[in-house]
Inverse folding.
């Protein structure tokens, strides 16, 4: 029996919900309107054809609202509050000497058609909305709901929408968080269950809203049934920190957390660290879930899922083609007329 | 036979007239696309002293603005707070998936056109307008 637990990568992209009309001139807000997060941590697990994303959304304080958009590989069957200690436990497993709190655990959108709202859920002070639509419709939805998208958002959202039209928007209600007594830095874990034959971990989204030279700092845990084959493999900015069978103790601890009974008896634990300038993070992480050892270049964002189509010639080129065709066709037409006569 | 040749000649004439017409229109009408938060094209040359109509087509799902002018103008907008630009031909806000037009006559020189929404200039949303004396 095959178990593939994929751990995964967290994506969080913080986008400010505009409180006032979005600034038109520079100077009203910080760079790109995005919040530069600390290190993000996410677990994505894949087992029996189901991907489990577990990430935490961090309360950043204030009474305003912050939002996050996460591209997903498929339509979630459920979104629920995540277990209280899963992410911390994974960090402790791979960094046993230093226990760190989840400081930026916020891992984690014409004439466009409207995005279809597939699921809405409130988890503590988080409003979760799962959307189905293309990059344009999701971006339009986000804008209509007060997200101020950074200038790289059109390209990045299209990058993801070409592979999956599903996005999750998480909006932190700062007032509700304060009313609940949440402190700055407190994270709300969210567990997203996604049946999919094609798991992948979105990494490029981590760079959204950042300047080219800004660093992206994220830990990605993969929990798979076997040693995973990754694409791309370790490289500058993407380090392999841990790769070993998950200990029985770890799996037992994870299984005992809320909503984690699906954790299998045996699994392989991988930990990757992303520490790279935003400009270099142009890919995602594909994890082979078939055991064939051939992760998808498309899933990794290294190749477009759309077959390349030759660009249409410019109108002027068409005119030249037409002119040449007409001139070349004249003798043929003349021959035909002559023959008929 | 004569009809065939006439038809060919007529087609050729139509094609050629289409080319000529497009070329003439290009001198005073410019279309600038906004795509992935970039101006396309980012370098434009127009003649001085004649009205030039710019068609600004935003193909992005986010709003942009097109502000053309001297370095002083841009320095002002870098610290400005106007949420929308309208009423000045050289400052145009273009909502997502919208198209706007503006007509301007220039004196010779080199000008920049920039989107001053936060982060957009730094992302590369800028271009150069060269105005040549006629």
């Amino acid at each position: 029996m095959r178990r593939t637990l994929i751990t995964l990568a967290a994506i969080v992209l913080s986008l400010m919900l505009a409180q006032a009309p979005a600034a038109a001139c520079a100077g009203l807000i910080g760079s790109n309107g995005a919040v530069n997060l600390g290190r993000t941590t996410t677990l994505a697990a894949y087992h029996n054809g189901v991907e489990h994303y577990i990430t935490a959304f961090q309360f950043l304080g204030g009474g305003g609202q912050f939002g996050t958009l996460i591209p997903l590989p498929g339509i979630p069957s459920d979104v629920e509050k995540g277990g209280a200690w899963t992410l911390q436990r994974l960090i402790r497993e791979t960094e046993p000497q230093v226990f760190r709190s989840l400081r930026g655990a916020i891992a984690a959108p014409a004439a466009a058609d409207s995005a279809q709202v597939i699921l809405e859920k409130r988890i503590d002070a988080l409003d979760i909305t799962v959307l189905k639509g293309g990059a344009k419709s999701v971006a339009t939805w986000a804008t209509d709901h007060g997200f101020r998208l950074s200038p790289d958002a059109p390209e990045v959202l299209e990058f993801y929408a070409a592979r999956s039209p599903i996005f999750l928007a998480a909006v932190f209600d700062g007032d509700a968080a304060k009313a609940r007594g949440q402190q700055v830095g407190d994270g709300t874990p969210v567990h997203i269950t996604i049946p999919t034959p094609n798991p992948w971990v979105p990494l490029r989204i981590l760079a959204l809203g950042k300047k080219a030279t800004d660093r992206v700092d994220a830990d990605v845990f993969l929990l798979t049934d076997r040693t995973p084959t990754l694409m791309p493999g370790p490289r500058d900015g993407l380090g392999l920190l841990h790769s070993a069978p998950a200990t029985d103790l770890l799996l037992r601890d994870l299984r005992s957390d809320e909503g984690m009974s699906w954790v299998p008896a045996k699994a392989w634990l991988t930990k990757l660290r992303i520490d790279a300038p935003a400009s270099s993070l142009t890919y995602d992480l594909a994890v082979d879930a078939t055991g064939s050892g051939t992760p998808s270049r498309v899933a990794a964002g290294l190749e477009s899922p759309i077959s390349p189509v030759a660009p249409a010639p410019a109108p002027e080129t068409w005119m030249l083609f037409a002119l040449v065709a007409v001139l070349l066709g004249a003798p043929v037409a003349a021959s035909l007329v002559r023959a008929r006569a | 036979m004569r009809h065939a040749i006439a038809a060919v000649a007529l087609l050729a004439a139509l094609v050629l007239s289409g080319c000529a017409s497009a070329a003439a229109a290009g001198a005073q009408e410019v279309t600038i696309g906004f795509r992935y938060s970039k101006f396309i094209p980012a370098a434009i040359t127009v003649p001085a002293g004649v009205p030039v109509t710019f068609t600004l087509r935003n193909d992005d799902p986010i709003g942009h603005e097109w502000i053309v002018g001297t370095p002083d103008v841009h320095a002002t907008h870098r610290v400005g707070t106007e949420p929308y630009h309208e009423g000045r031909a050289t400052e145009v806000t273009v909502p997502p998936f919208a198209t706007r037009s503006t007509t301007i006559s220039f004196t010779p020189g080199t000008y920049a056109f920039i989107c001053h929404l936060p982060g957009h200039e730094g992302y590369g949303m800028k271009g150069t307008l060269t105005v040549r004396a006629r």
The two ends of chain B are 48 Å apart (CA to CA). Residues 1-26 of chain B have pLDDT under 50 and may be disordered. The first helix of chain B runs from residue 2 to 26.
